[in-house]
Automatic annotation (TrEMBL):
<dbReference type="GO" id="GO:0043015">
    <property type="term" value="F:gamma-tubulin binding"/>
</dbReference>
<dbReference type="GO" id="GO:0005874">
    <property type="term" value="C:microtubule"/>
</dbReference>
<dbReference type="GO" id="GO:0031122">
    <property type="term" value="P:cytoplasmic microtubule organization"/>
</dbReference>
<comment type="function">
    <text>Component of the gamma-tubulin ring complex (gTuRC) which mediates microtubule nucleation.</text>
</comment>
<feature type="domain" description="Gamma tubulin complex component protein N-terminal">
    <location>
        <begin position="10"/>
        <end position="209"/>
    </location>
</feature>
<dbReference type="Pfam" id="PF17681">
    <property type="entry name" value="GCP_N_terminal"/>
</dbReference>
<keyword id="KW-0493">Microtubule</keyword>
<dbReference type="InterPro" id="IPR007259">
    <property type="entry name" value="GCP"/>
</dbReference>
<dbReference type="GO" id="GO:0007020">
    <property type="term" value="P:microtubule nucleation"/>
</dbReference>
<keyword id="KW-0206">Cytoskeleton</keyword>
<dbReference type="GO" id="GO:0000278">
    <property type="term" value="P:mitotic cell cycle"/>
</dbReference>
<keyword id="KW-0963">Cytoplasm</keyword>
<feature type="compositionally biased region" description="Low complexity">
    <location>
        <begin position="53"/>
        <end position="63"/>
    </location>
</feature>
<dbReference type="InterPro" id="IPR041470">
    <property type="entry name" value="GCP_N"/>
</dbReference>
<comment type="similarity">
    <text>Belongs to the TUBGCP family.</text>
</comment>
<dbReference type="GO" id="GO:0000930">
    <property type="term" value="C:gamma-tubulin complex"/>
</dbReference>
<protein>
    <recommendedName>
        <fullName>Gamma-tubulin complex component</fullName>
    </recommendedName>
</protein>
Length: 231
């Protein structure tokens, strides 16, 4: 991760205390950029105002575009992470409107409006960097997020629990497909249930794909294709 930008100490019109406050806001902005880059890299989209790169959107979580990290659990984590960033975007929008209405607002006002993110962003960044550096895959993402959500900071715990809730949605869909229909929706080998070796595996799989599951005429193959709808 690149170093965080700092406000120059040599600006004569800024008091040292103001320089320190602005540097804290630079750290928030730097963390936000790293979050959005992580989301963009592993999902191909992010809710920002900037236009997409001229090369077009990246593939959704493919191993060749995301440093070896891929899968529906990672995409779900990014979806939850993007949702967590929405209050920060809203706070910036409100600040912009307030400064347009009153250009004499002080730096301390910025610090007051964004102070709630000073503990949140570094804590969530630890989770993101753990997933990136350790190449945490599949259901292990659930364990990692849960472990870091057990801390004593309520804003951090609440944010990570919301991210975990999105990731659990993938797990519940995989469990439902397996327990109700005997299907393994596990294209990226993330589920804790694996297909064992079987001599009749190919014919059995073909029967599953062709079988009508009595779900509005859906076959096993069509239900597997619904995996693309997972977050």
């Amino acid at each position: 991760m690149s170093p965080c930008p700092q406000v120059s100490q040599d600006l004569p019109f800024l008091h040292p205390s103001e320089t320190s406050v602005l540097s804290r806001q630079c750290k928030l902005g730097s963390d936000y950029i790293h979050f959005t880059e992580f989301i963009q890299q592993h999902t191909g989209h992010v809710h920002i105002q900037d236009q997409a790169p001229s090369g077009g959107p990246q593939s959704s979580g493919g191993p060749h575009t995301s440093g070896g990290l891929h899968g529906v659990y990672l995409r779900a984590f990014c979806t939850g992470l993007d949702s967590m960033l929405q209050p920060y975007r809203q706070a910036l929008l409100e600040l912009e409107q307030e400064f347009l209405a009153d250009p004499h607002l002080t730096i301390s006002h910025i610090n007051y409006k964004l102070d709630q993110f000073q503990l949140l962003f570094p804590s969530v960044m630890v989770v993101v960097e753990a997933i990136r550096s350790q190449k945490i895959h599949g259901c292990q993402i659930l364990e990692t997020v849960h472990k870091h959500s057990c801390g004593g900071l309520p804003p951090v715990r609440t944010a990570l629990e919301k991210i975990l809730c999105v990731c659990h949605g993938v797990l519940y869909k995989q469990l439902a497909a397996w327990m109700l229909h005997g299907l393994l929706l596990d294209q990226h080998e993330e589920f804790f249930i694996r297909q064992g070796p079987s001599g009749a595996g190919s014919s059995t799989n073909q029967d599953e794909e062709d079988e009508d599951l009595c779900l509005g005429g859906l076959s096993g193959k069509q239900l597997r294709e619904l995996q693309d709808l997972l977050p």
